[in-house]
């Protein structure tokens, strides 16, 4: 585990990665990926051949003040966004005995998602750590299951190209015969790729580039040639 990462964050991250591997067994798991050249870093990225899931982790040592901006950055580059937050962020609110998580002095309370998470909308899936049944009823159920996003055949947001490095953009242009050379700016190449490629082609190409990227903290890279053989 990197020195800058706390044991608390590492604990949540380990559980998140295990669940992602169940959901997306063919995906490459990557850590600390920039959403743009100099933008917010994505804690965990699961990259399948045509699907990307981004995860923001909030351990009990974290704060939620930057979460809206982080989520905004991730929704620009991924199909799905997950917020994995520690249960310490749940907010106790009065409720009835059937929905209660705790009881004190004859009154019942529920541990609800904080407003900042609740306001993120249906495109963001909340995972509460640890995954467990919080109901006070015998035979209760888990109010916050770690639901898998609905994986659909859908083009990535156009901002996903911002995750790629210059060399990756050059390679992508060459493979798809998009006019560009090593002196071309990143902005020029991104605009050219958006113009010449379909949404499906861009999605597959971006995923292939990320799966092939050599980086320190990630599953082994999957070379483009290997992807091509597997797809054949």
Give the topology, please.
Blueprint: H1 7-23, E1 28-34, E2 41-47, E3 52-58, H2 67-75, E4 80-86, E5 91-95, E6 102-104, E7 107-112, H3 115-118, E8 124-129, H4 166-175, H5 186-196, H6 199-212, H7 224-231
Parallel strand pairs: 3-4, 4-8
Antiparallel strand pairs: 1-2, 2-3, 5-7, 6-7
Compute the gyration radius: what is it? 20 Å
**Unreliable runs:** none
Number of strands: 8
CATH architecture assignment name of the largest domain: 3-Layer(aba) Sandwich
Euclidean distance between termini CA atoms: 37 Å
CATH topology heading of the largest domain: Trna Endonuclease, Chain: A, domain 1
* H and E string: HEEEHEEEEHEHHHH
CATH class term of the largest domain? Alpha Beta
> Biggest β-sheet: count, sense, barrel?
5 strands, mixed
Shape: elongated
Strand arrangement, major sheet: 1-2-3-4-8
The total count of helices amounts to 7
Helix content: 25-40%
Strand content: 15-25%
